[in-house]
Amino acid sequence: MASSEKCLGKGSSPPGPVPKGCVRLYSMRFCPFAHRTRLVLHAKGIKHDTININLKDKPDWFLEKNPFGLVPVLETPEGQVIYESPITCDYLDEVYAEKKLLPADPFEKAQQKILLEQFSKVTPYFYKIPMARQNGEDTSKLEEEMKEKLKSLNETLARKKTKFFGGDSITMIDYMIWPWFERIEIYGLEHCMGGTAELKKWKERMLEDPAVKATMFPSEVYKGFYKTYAEGKPDYDYGL
Q1: How many CB atoms are closer than 10 A to CB 159?
Q2: 166 CB-near residues (< 8 Å, 6+ apart)
Q3: Residues 84 and 129 in one domain
Q4: What range(s) does the GST N-terminal domain occupy (predicted)?
Q5: Are residues 91 and 125 in the same domain?
């Protein structure tokens, strides 16, 4: 499907209607939350188009779709709008029922949601530590806390004795936590994975996945974008 690679900002014309038989994703190329939805769209082979948004200078028409001004946002040909990354991913899994990513068993599904809650306590460190470093602050305490949280995830995987967090094939939970691990080196946090042998094996296996390969950027593009982001002038079109 046609996608607007370049981001649309304030004053831009709204895109036309969503084509029939397709779903539209409003995204930002480097956003890890929108990355979750991109992974699910690719993993399930869902026909979609993508409109990238300038998150520093949002178009008014986008704020009408999501007053929070955040990505990801999904829009259907009927004009239905869904946002928040876990909600968009669950929605896609229900509506496009072939190749389900969430388990059918209610207990197993609940386990994935619990694990996602556990992981949501880790994501702030991906921002806190680089920002503190940039301000010349001591980050050793934050890094220790992050190491402990990653060790806990590693133990969960070790107890399961499976290749992925939901079993021996990739399921929703793997895609929900992957975007941050893809960026861990860019954030300069790979050393926080010390002592997490199972998690490291999981990361290697994830890198072989077709949806992961289809949605990732070369590390020099990530690094270039994050440099502009850290300087307070994010170039959302970096590398285009």
Answers
A1: 9
A2: 103, 108, 112, 172, 173, 174
A3: no
A4: 21-100
A5: no
The reply to whether 235 falls in a domain is no
Strand intervals (E) in the chain: 4-8, 23-27, 48-53, 73-75, 81-83
- Say what the pLDDT of residue 230 is: 87
Residue 3 above 90 pLDDT?
no
For residue 14, CA distances in Å to 79, 121, 146, 189 come to: 13, 36, 41, 38
| Strands 23-27 and 73-75, sheet pairing | antiparallel
Which of the following is catalytic: 7, 22, 31, 89? 31
Q: What would the pLDDT profile of 16-54 be if each residue is shown by its tens digit?
A: 999 999 999 999 999 999 999 999 999 999 999 999 999
Which pTM was predicted?
0.96
Both tokens of 240, joined, read 């285009």
Roughly how many angstroms between the first and final C-alpha of the chain, as a whole number? 18
Residue 5's pLDDT band (cuts 50, 70, 90): confident
> What does the mean pLDDT of the chain come to?
96
| CATH number of the domain residue 146 falls in | 1.20.1050.10
Secondary structure percentages of the chain, helix, strand, coil, to 5 = 50, 10, 40
Q: Are 76 and 28 in contact (CB under 8 A)?
A: no
What is the C-alpha separation between 166 and 172, in angstroms, rounded?
8
| Residue 214 pLDDT exceeds 60 | yes
Domains held by the chain: number: 2
- Does 2 score more than 80 pLDDT? no
Catalytic residue status for 7: no
